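Q: What structure does this chain adopt?
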Amino acid sequence: MKFKHLFTWLLIFIMCFTLISCDNSDDTTLNTQMPAPTATAVPPVGSARPLLYKVSNKNGSVIWLFGSIHAGRESYYRLPDYVMEPFYDSDCLAVEADIIAFESDFSMQTEALKYLMYRDGSTIKNHISDKLYDEAVHVMVMMGSYTPLLDNYCPAFWSTMIDSMQIDEDVAKAEHGVDRYLLKHAKDSGKKIVEIESAKSQYKMLAGFSNELQEYLLAQSVASYNSNEDDLELVRLMDIWASGDEQALIEYIETDTSDIPEEERVLYDEYYKAMYTDRNIYMADYAQTALNTRNKVFICVGAAHVVGEGSITQILAQRGYTVELIIE
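A:
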């Protein structure tokens, strides 16, 4: 079994990585175009019933832990009262990264992109096979997004760029991501916003993947180009999130990996540790600090971080905090 889907579609469940779309005449920016979308069924307006957890300690301090999806559908809004009431009652909104602020700050974008660029005189051609490079360029050309400037960027960025551009706009749009929705409401109401991570740190994490893992992920992204199976997989994933079915989401995320070939197992373990294990511990530490300081914080992070083995909710429960799933 390949773990490609963990990076492609679960990307919208685990990391609010935002691609920068600018004039490609600049040596640090890229110009991207979305492929033509295909029609899919649209859920009823306001139908989403996403997962929300209440976390409390013995002193009565409370925080809220909300499972976000970083690309969504307009029909999901508005979100149900059991989500919005705690959100408005909270002292602040905590997100992985303030993507709205990041997208409006060119200097921050430039600094973040530097992590994904080769600055030792090499290019992506020196780090992947000639065959994969030619195939990846072909895909980018077909998407209307290739520029020679891309050769200065690492394979993880190419992979993420291809995956993001393959998302069918009739299925999900970044502009309808839940964290973006809540960020807009927080900014409009003057609510304090806290970054648990940052867009810059997420770029740095991707750049830190081993060359072997980056090449593997790019190869899988190229292989999935225009795959109808991936479109169907994304629809399934979106439906699970919108249903609020905790067990279904856990089962999807905790895919059986027993048949992963040994040569891919090392790559899987590297990927999982960076994207889930380390980040879940870091987010749980933030949640614990918020509880101890008695701040009413509404934490919005990718839904895959809040359910299942090694999740934030499990870590907090193991540390002695009370974790309750809120059911409407």
